[in-house]
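Board notes (copied after class):
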Amino acid sequence: MKRSQRFTLIELLVSKTCQICVSLLYYLPKSTPLFFERERGRGGKGKLSFPVKRKFSLAPALSRFTLIELLVVIAIIAILAAILMPALSSARERAKSSACVNNLKQVSLGASSYAEDFNNFFYTRDDGGSIWSRNSTHIRLSKYVGGPSQKSLDLLAAADRDKQCPKVFMCPDAESHPLEAIAEAKTSTYKSDLAYGFTVSFYAAEVGIHMYTGKSWKNVTGTYTYAPSMLVVGGDNAWYNNRSGRCTQIQVDATLGGAFYTRHLGRGNFFTLAGNVISLTGAELCAFYAVPYRASNGNSYAVPIKRFVNQERFLETY
């Protein structure tokens, strides 16, 4: 028995598409030139040559498309689009995550440069605002990431400082999805509040942390030890509820309304005390990482991370 020939989906789509194109030629007006012309000479050596035109018609003698055939082509195109769209969307999100990682590398270098200029000390406590606030980490880091200096920004009003926020402080995904970036909080009038957040020292009298990178850090009880590459300094963040609205201060338990945010396909991007940039799920963040903490006695400790805001904007606890 003769086996029937099978066609792949792509072959069928190409075939039908070609058939549509050729059929369109069939409906062109007769006055449309659908032939090529070429000249050939007649005669032999020493004789005059006369041009002769030959016409090669491209108009096909095909039947018209049926409604069923047209619907089949449309269905195939719709199926291919449905298959490709999720892949394209995923690729777009991965591109945003890669851009976010590049931004955080520059922010991490800026933080290291700042610490070198200030006796290995990094300012990480503010009133919850970003560059529009004169007390923020962002305004101090601005010139170290290619933005205006703190001195020049101090001369501007808050709304004008907000407009001067360096691009590297903003995650591309936060700019395209602002409501997701601030989770459920909608009170801020400053766009720069979508900027990356920084972890804070919990002791109110202190305003930052020491950037100790040459030693391991222990938690308060001395039970666990963390390398500098396991201590998160800043990165993707979200407001959680309205609380006190301190969006740019990331706390391990989101007590002040700021939390770690896994916005990139279930992962978040962060930079550590060692300067490296990491991409982690919320479970990995809470299981293995901590934030640097400076106590009232001046000692430095590591505080394990307990909470984060997931991609669906729900607070999760570990």
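Comment from the instructor: Residues 30-44, 46-56 have pLDDT under 50 and may be disordered. The chain is about 30% helix and 15% strand.
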